[in-house]
């Protein structure tokens, strides 16, 4: 079967990009992203700040042994890594469900569907 050459749509102009940026669809996409990212960032920075403050000012608490050589500071430190992975997973799921379909629709409107 012979391949059919479909002419490519010309690249969007600067005016088209600006018009899309002002569109309700783009504003909704941006708003959804910010409603997820800003609270998650604040949560993680506060959580990390508490860890640092506890490490600096609550030595006895952080040195409290839980079992063997494992203390509270080590568990909270490992919790920082766990939190990072959980937030990443939540963001990927959120982006796949909420952001990517909207971004694809905006891209298709601006550039045409992918061939």
From TrEMBL:
Pfam families: DUF485 (PF04341)
Membrane-traversing stretches: 36-58, 70-92
Keyword Transmembrane helix attached: yes
Top-level taxon of the source organism: Bacteria
UniProt keyword list: Membrane, Transmembrane, Transmembrane helix
Keyword Transmembrane helix: yes
Protein name (record): Clumping factor B
UniProt source species: Mycobacterium adipatum
Lineage: Bacteria, Bacillati, Actinomycetota, Actinomycetes, Mycobacteriales
